[in-house]
Design brief:
Elements lengths: L2 E8 L1 H5 L3 H10 L3 E8 L3 H7 L9 H8 L4 E9 L1 H9 L12 H5 L8 E3 L3 H11 L4
Antiparallel strand pairs: 1-3, 1-4, 2-3
This protein binds adenosine-3',5'-cyclic-monophosphate (CMP).
The site of adenosine-3',5'-cyclic-monophosphate has 8 residues, from loops.
Length: about 140
């Protein structure tokens, strides 16, 4: 197992509802370290760029509106197998499909307002971390 870094975003729904501390307790209980953290509000242009891979999807415009609807907390996580580990802690994209004791099962209200984001590959983790932080 290798030590990896990954990007976590606590989305506007979860920040507004006051779930950030509970989400970070779940992240830390899984053995992941929070190396960097900042709270910010995305501009429309930033949201469109961050989610450009989804630009052809029917939910893209709504997703960008949602992601700019309030502040988000972006974090750099580190740990053994961090990318997969954090995806397990988050649970499935759709909270209806998420396992018990995952962040999305507990805190997400819909497939769009799903509380958190996590990078899905090493390549995307580097890209996404560099979007918000400087990693190399
Ligand atoms: P995230 O892990 O941030 O990656 C892309 C996001 O698009 C996803 O979480 C959801 O917030 C959103 N998303 C994915 N699928 C759908 C869908 N079918 N309808 C609406 N939003 C979606």
């Amino acid at each position: 197992m290798s030590v990896q870094k990954t990007l976590s975003i606590i989305k506007p729904d979860a920040v507004k509802a006051g779930h950030a501390d509970a989400i970070n307790s779940m992240i830390e209980s899984s053995g992941l370290k929070i190396l960097e953290k900042k709270e910010l509000t995305l501009t429309k242009e930033q949201a469109q760029e961050f989610y450009s891979v989804h630009s052809d999807k029917p939910f893209y415009n709504e997703l960008c509106e949602f992601m700019t609807s309030g502040s988000i907390i972006v974090q750099m996580l580190e740990g053994d197998n961090a990318i997969e580990r954090y995806r397990e802690v988050m649970g499935a994209t759709n909270p209806d499909d998420a396992n018990e004791n995952t962040i999305r099962k507990k805190f997400a209200s819909s497939i769009q307002e799903n509380a958190v984001h996590g990078s899905d590959s090493e390549e995307n983790a580097i890209k996404e971390l560099n979007f918000f932080f400087s990693i190399n």
